[in-house]
Amino acid sequence: MRICVVGDELATGVGDARALGWTGRVVARTSFGRPAMVFTLAVPGETSTQLSSRWEAETGARFGLEHEVDNRLVVALGRHDVAAGLSVARSRLNLANILDVAEANRTPTFVVGPPPGTPDQGDRIAELSDAFADVASRRRVPYVDTYAPLASHEQWLADLAQNGTTYPGQAGYGLMAWLVLHTGWHSWLGVPQDE
């Protein structure tokens, strides 16, 4: 199995003293039958427009062409669409294009939505997350809402405050990993869930 995780710097765990982020924690808690190759392909500050223009070429260089290779795509959406002033309609279209191309390529896809950031962007990130969830739902693609469960979560907010940035630390990435692991991750991969 080859899994490509495409997204912004949150996909790599910026701010995590253990350098695992949510991606490393999720992979560490997943029992693959055979060793899996997991590639985190992140670009700092990236919007969904930028992501939609690069993901296919970058994953194509890592996915296997052989029939026995199970290629998987994880789209880790960040918050930069809000800061860049992209319309929700444009953000929706960008995700829709990614999912449609992945489906045409017969690549199973899993989407992780943007987590909370600064309080002044809260409503806009919530709207963006809802829009992404709708796009994924219409295409029957699993979607993990990280915004709603974390927006008022004490541990998440404490983590952001401690770091003094919009990046979580170990606790925050642990919360994101928990959400991914408990929102269809194992069934999407077809692997057993750890107890």
From TrEMBL:
Organism of origin: Myceligenerans indicum
Protein name per its UniProtKB record: Lysophospholipase
Domain SGNH hydrolase-type esterase per the UniProt entry, residue ranges: 5-174
Which Pfam families did the record assign?
Answer: Lipase_GDSL_2
